[in-house]
Amino acid sequence: xxxxxxxxxxxxxxxxxxxxxxxxxxxxxxxxxxxxxxxxxxxxxxxxxxxxxxxxxxxxxxxxxxxxxxxxxxxxxxxxxxxxxxxxxxxxxxxxxxxxxxxxxxxxxxxxxxxxxxxxxxxxxxxxxxxxxxxxxxxxxxxxxxxxxxxxxxxxxxxxxxxxxxxxxxxxxxxxxxxxxxxxxxxxxxxxxxxxxxxxxxxxxxxxxxxxxxxxxxxxxxxxxxxxxxxxxxxxxxxxxxxxxxxxxxxxxxxxxxxxxxxxxxxxxxxxxxxxxxxxxxxxxxxxxxxxxxxxxxxxxxxxxxxxxxxxxxxxxxxxxxxxxxxxxxxxxxxxxxxxxxxxxxxxxxx
Length: 351
Fold this sequence. Notes:
Elements: E1 33-34, E2 43-51, H1 57-70, E3 78-85, E4 91-99, H2 102-117, E5 126-132, E6 139-143, E7 158-159, H3 171-174, E8 192-195, E9 198-201, E10 207-215, H4 221-245, E11 251-260, E12 266-276, H5 279-288, H6 290-306, E13 313-321, E14 326-331, H7 340-347
């Protein structure tokens, strides 16, 4: 049994302790991505387009242009695309790209940013850029099975053996190397920088991002029906709650997205992606909110029924980013898009 924290990021000066004893044995296997020790930082860059109704020629052109830039010099090692309809009824198509070389990303990003949000918002399509560039001590991954990495784990050198820090409340925090010495509490308020029509949000310290995915492409008919009839509707209910009503509990924005292929067709993969004021706020929702209690109950019933024969693949990545590891910029988007919500929260009068 391995620790989720790789040996080169473990510290003898631990001041914050795990929520389980050293002899804890998880009830089922899970795995984490392992990176070469030389990798000290990764980049997660979300490029979104936003529109209402049918997809316009301008939206198609924007999506084609970012895909072309991804394929160009210093482009990402991996990227994927997904879409969802937000709380205001707008379709959002999000292309998320990953780098493990900050120099390559920096060489690529300035031109991509100007092309994406540097023009006027006159074509009826909103655009946004949301970037985290965390040190490797500030994020964690978890996979229910081996053989198909997703998201930032595609950059990894490989996967671990079975890890200890999972299947208990608090495991998410315990897998983040920084948690050994730091409570990762949020600090500061999100100021706004306006540059013509562009709005840039300078978010606060220790902002939290989660991408949590589901892949049912390997399931056979009976298992697929069980997932789509018994689990997915409960998951969707929780995701819709966070999308529409998550702000009071610390969720700035939530997107429950369907992954699409190169032609824009839906695949049998989905993921929730959300911005949280803090890891603690995410933990409180996961541990105690009725919407997540129902998700957890439906998932446990599903997995206990199928046992090791379950073909559903689950994964997530969680990041707690320092203030200087974040970049958020919006052009022509409605006011509850992504981290624009944080502006509303900061401006709201205190009770």
